[in-house]
Write a structure and sequence with these properties.
The chain starts with 10 loop residues before the first helix and ends in a 21-residue tail after the last helix. The model has no long low-confidence stretch (mean pLDDT 90). The chain is mainly α and 80 residues long. The protein is extended, with a radius of gyration of 16 Å.
Amino acid sequence: MLGTELNIPAPDDFYQELIELHRDLSDEQSALLNAKLILLLANHIGDAAVLREAMRAAREDVIPIEHATETPFPPGEGQG
């Protein structure tokens, strides 16, 4: 079963380290880094059912671009 409760000690510190990991990388390098990190962690988890559950959870609120009809930010927020 996929654990979704906060389980990372000092989550803000971890998030900052994750952001720093991507510093000075191109979009393509950042995507490659993310893919490598995902595969390393998936291998560590090793449970196919848990990994499938995680993939479903990660995808559930992501709208495919061809179906997206609204901007990602409400008017006046997050733009420039």
